[in-house]
Model the fold of this input.
Amino acid sequence: MNNVEEKTFFSSVCKAIIGEDKELRRLFSDNNPLYSRQHNGICCLYETTMVYLVFKQLLKDGFPYIVSWEHPYPGNSSLKADMGILNADHSVNSLVEFKIWVSEKGEEVRADVEKYNKCGFSGDKYLCVIEYGGPNMFDNCKYLTDNNPEMDIIGMETFDTRYFDSWRTQQLIENPVNLYFFKMKK
Done:
C-alpha cells in the first residue's frame, strides 16, 4: 500500500471500531440495567470480531485492494495473517495483523512482531493495535516503538468507551481506547 492507501486503511479501522463502540453503547443503554456490570462498548469484543468489522468497513469504503480474511503467509501456509491485502491478480501486496494490547509489557504485540520477523515475507507488513485504558496514547506509542524497534507508527487515534471498572469503583466509567497502526521496517 502507498501512503494514501495506508491512511485510507487506518481511516476504515477507526470508523469500524469507533462506530461499533457507539452502537454497542446505545444498545446497552437501551437495555439498562441488565448490562450495568459489564463493559458497555468495544471492550466486550474479541479480536476476530474487530477484524470482521474492519473487513466490512473496507468493503463499504471501496478499498482498492482485495481483502482476504485469515490469509496464509506466502511461503508458510501454516501461518495465517488476520488480513491479506491482495492485488487484482491475487498476489499478496501486504499482510495485516490485529492485536488487542492488554498486558503491561505488551508481550502480545511482541509476539506478532516476532511472527513477522520469522515469516520470510518481503512485502509490507502492518500491525493494528487496540489498547484499552492507556491514559497517554503518545507515551504508550513510544513505549511500543522503543520495545519493538522494527515498527514505525503510521497513525493513531483515541476515543472513550464505557468500561466496567471491576477493580476500583465497581461501576461503568469512561475509559480511553487507543488505536495504533504500525508498519514493519524493511
Summary: Residues 97 and 127 are 5 Å apart (CA to CA). The mean pLDDT is 95. The longest strand covers residues 151-165.
